[in-house]
Write a structure and sequence with these properties.
The structure is a homodimer. By secondary structure, the first copy, chain A, is an alpha/beta fold. The first copy, chain A, is built from 13 helices and 12 strands. Chain A has a 6-stranded parallel sheet, with helices on both faces. The longest helix of chain A is centred in the last third of the chain and has 17 residues. The first copy, chain A, starts with a helix and ends in a 10-residue tail after the last strand. Chains A and B meet through helix 5, helix 6, strand 2, helix 7 and helix 11 of A and helix 5, helix 6, strand 2, helix 7 and helix 11 of B. The structure holds a DNA duplex.
Chain lengths: ~350, ~350
DNA sequence: CTTAACTGCTTAAACGTTTAATCAACTCTT
DNA sequence: AAGAGTTGATTAAACGTTTAAGCAGTTAAG
């Protein structure tokens, strides 16, 4: 009596939830072993073409979906790649991610995106989360705040492939994909000089972040190279938000000896700077020329349109994904190290194109 | 001899890769069973306080990290929640995600973010990916393109909790969190009327998307209610990008009888509209008042600042997460249905604040 | 004709947990 | 002092795969 009760309640459950079909169900249908089915589905050379075909047919009929957790557990591979970015709400990062995803999906990998919001703590949490989820690799762009690299060292020490892009860190000695920031600064400065600018300011990012430091070094060296004035007051450090772009532009306008060109290390801050210039009826580019960095879509939509550096986000995303795949494919022992530095491209727009020239 | 060889080769391996510590290692140290360790870590009532304490201590010493895959496989729960959004590169969506993540992380869930890029196909792929990854639930905002709901039905039929936010769909009959779009339109129209506007245009989103349809209905009804002119030419459909905002604004300016106010259903399109107005030296708000939708941060940074509707993105994210947790916690049988409609808030800024009044 | 190699499969163990079913040893009740 | 209940553990099976090892049957080589 008790048994009957139990069984009937179980039956109700079963009829509701309809168990997923497993490899065993397929094996039962064909009267072969589960192992054979597994091998057939993986196109193992030791399984006959006939069996493979039959297995695939039955799998389709039963709407078989492989249990990712089981295979991940057994094989030790989750087929998941973790991605850490400061924020996804810029075109640069969302484009990088989109292209990474495309490449990785093709090889059977899925991605988990996490945002650090430029916070060191959140970045550490993200790393822990990703390690917990047993990702097969991590592709990251570091938060501005991050100085202590111990969490990234932890990833390395676990033998999980780590690829950095854009915001990298030399000391870590891992794969890196980015653009030539130093050279980009040269391009910008030389472009501005060609337009007749003689006093070029730079609203730069945080000095301790490598890419921004490279941009600053590039700016300084280019200015020196062309014997232009290199005043301390012309070089300011910023967090590169719209808001701070406004503040730093206001600061530059207060100078006794104003610049006739401003090179801003980020487009959002460049937009803020442009707003101030427009509000104060300062003609751009004739009074002050402006160049941004990143080629965010809005740069071409504002008035005047902002010259900027195209960072090849799509390319970066694809290369980062491919670099991971290189690691994943080969045995863990051989450790190749990729440092890919792409040439960036200066897109000249109205904000730095002097018609008077 | 053979044994010795095998062992030594194994030892080399171990010293290199240093195996992760498992529940068994802890059990061995304490001379108890693995099951006891598992229960201790889960704070089972049948394990003594002393044992629990010891287990936790050893776990810490050995730097034990639970194997998520194994527990997920055994328990049938992956503790992963899938999130699908059109794009992450707006403040609205990234803020929603950030807050969702916060709530879910606290309960031990992690999230997998995927972007549909407004493409129906990519949305379907995302759903398949998430199902494959065995997420415990899906929280989504639908792509503009999506009309066919069969993929979402698939999620429902698998018994996986599905929660929609912002871009939902009535026919699906699932939980939904959003704002009162219809009422928001009323607020905007009435605000503009108070400013003295008599001819109000609406650059709306796609009619077939429910939220945009509600905004359009709200606009139409509010106009009717106050006996203002309701010309077909004043109501235009847009994809709400910056670019299309520009195009649709230009279209409105070509009318014989120009509007004196424009209500745009999205901030990016409102920005495009503002650019055109600025370029053509049309005074905002005196000649034409402007109101956007979404309260993206840049609305307060442009000149003039754009009035907009605050959608309470943080709230939406948190509520969506909580709604999922409600489902996750209770047995699958009882199916409660939440439709949460938040009141939005009109943030009045320079673009619709007539000083002449 | 024997040995070797290949083909196509099966068996069984393993991945690291969770959990139902037991069990031994106590502590109360009555 | 026997039965009932509680406490704190153990055992063993299970989750759905993958994979090393093995085995029967066929083919090829010497």
């Amino acid at each position: 009596m008790l048994y009957l009760l139990k069984r009937s309640s179980k039956d109700i459950k079963n009829s509701n939830i309809k168990k997923k079909t497993t490899i065993k169900d397929i094996a039962n249908v064909l009267n072969i072993s589960a192992a054979a089915v597994s091998k057939a589905l993986h196109d193992d050379s030791r399984i006959s073409a006939k069996t493979k075909k039959a297995v695939r047919q039955v799998a389709k009929n039963l709407n078989y979906q492989p249990n990712h957790l089981a295979s991940a557990l057994r094989s030790g591979k989750s087929n998941l790649v973790g991605v850490i970015v400061p924020r996804t709400n810029s075109n640069f990062f969302s484009s990088v991610i989109e292209n990474m995803e495309e490449v990785l999906n093709k090889e059977g990998y899925n991605i988990i995106i996490t945002q650090s919001n430029e916070s060191y703590k959140k970045e550490c949490d993200s790393i822990d989360t990703l390690l917990f989820t047993q990702v097969d690799g991590i592709i990251a762009s570091m938060a501005n705040e991050t100085i202590d690299l111990k969490y990234y060292e932890k990833v390395k020490s676990k033998g999980i492939p780590l690829i950095l892009f854009d915001r990298g860190e030399n000391d870590l000695n891992v794969d890196y994909i980015g653009i030539n920031d130093y050279e980009s600064s040269h391009m910008i400065v030389e472009h501005l000089i060609k337009q007749g600018c003689k006093r070029i300011a730079h609203i730069g990012g945080y000095k301790r972040t490598r890419i921004f430091n490279n941009r600053i070094r590039g700016y300084v060296d280019a200015i020196k190279k062309h014997s232009l004035p290199l005043d301390d007051e012309l070089l300011v450090e910023s967090n590169l938000t719209i808001k701070d772009g406004r503040a730093k532009m206001q600061q530059l306008l207060k100078l006794n000896h104003r610049p006739d060109a401003v090179y801003v290390a980020g487009d959002y801050a460049a937009l803020g700077a442009l707003q101030i210039l427009n509000e104060q009826n300062i003609n751009v580019p004739d009074d002050i020329a402006l160049v941004g960095f990143g080629d965010e879509p809005f740069t071409s939509m504002v008035t005047p349109s902002i010259s900027s550096i195209n960072q090849h986000s799509a390319e970066i995303g694809k290369l980062a994904a491919k670099t991971f795949l290189d690691h994943a494919k080969q045995s863990s022992v051989k450790q190749l190290l990729n440092k890919i530095i792409l040439d960036a491209e200066l897109v000249v727009r109205a904000s730095s194109k002097k018609v008077s020239k």
